[in-house]
Amino acid sequence: MLRSQFEEDLEKLHNQFYAMGQEVLSQINRTVRAFVTHDRDLAKEVIEDDAEVNEYEVKLEKKSFEMIALQQPVSQDLRTVLTVLKAVSDVERMGDHAVAIAQATIRMKGEERIPAVEEEIQKMGREVKSVVEAALDLYLNGSVDDAYRVASMDEQINHYFETIRDLATEEIKKNPEAIVTGRDYFQVISYLERIGDYAKNICEWVVYFETGKIVEL
């Protein structure tokens, strides 16, 4: 296979991955908005659109394996394809967690809400969206130094997780009838925290692509 063909296929792979990432970014934005505004219709939309994310994953994995089998890339080229494969898996899992938040939105119909907690969840959602966006930009244009910088943004997400968990616990103590709601809050912030972890994974794959070393950021 000509080098020019490999580079053309690789560019398509990158573009498809970025398109997948943008779709998941939209899912994250909409699912948090649906949760804090109690918009069940928007939540259903997020769930339905997950099929598109899964389709991206299947296409990207198929194309990656074809390139490995037919073009037998080595060294940096092989690392590039493997980076795409690993990053695709992480992005797909982000989408799964966005769907789980949407499902919680639907499940919570009629439950007593705690506005102070939901306000903080909205803030956490914005931070998660920022980290995912930065990780996707890093994938396209980043360096090792940028990977460490973006990965460090996850600390703020972890801080939100702990703060919201403590706030929800205190609010439930004041109003025990909100205990069922609290359970869903704990799940939702766990999903958001995991999305942040997957964004950090992308940073780790960028380091792998640049250096050949597998690191934990």
Structure characterization notes:
The relative contact order is 0.14. It is elongated and about 65 Å long. The chain has 217 residues and is mainly α. The chain has helices at residues 3-37, 40-71, 75-107, 115-141, 144-152, 154-174, 179-211. It starts with a helix and ends in a 6-residue tail after the last helix. Residues 20-104, 121-206 form the PhoU domain.
Structural classification: mainly alpha
Helix content: over 70%
Shape: elongated
| Strand residue percentage | under 5%
- Termini separation comes to 36 Å
The beta-strand count equals: 0
SSE order: HHHHHHH
The largest sheet, given as strand count, sense and whether it forms a barrel, is: none
Number of discrete helical segments: 7
Give the mean pLDDT: 91
Low-pLDDT runs of 5+ residues are none
Subunit structure: Homodimer.
Subcellular location: Cytoplasm
Function: Plays a role in the regulation of phosphate uptake.
Family: Belongs to the PhoU family.
Brief account:
The chain is mainly alpha-helical. The protein has helices spanning 3-37, 40-71, 75-107, 115-141, 144-152, 154-174, 179-211. Belongs to the PhoU family.
Explain the layout of strands and helices.
Layout: H1 3-37, H2 40-71, H3 75-107, H4 115-141, H5 144-152, H6 154-174, H7 179-211
Helix pairs in contact: 1-2, 1-3, 1-4, 2-3, 3-7, 4-5, 4-6, 4-7, 5-7, 6-7
Keywords:
single chain, 217 residues, mainly alpha, 7 helices, 88% helix
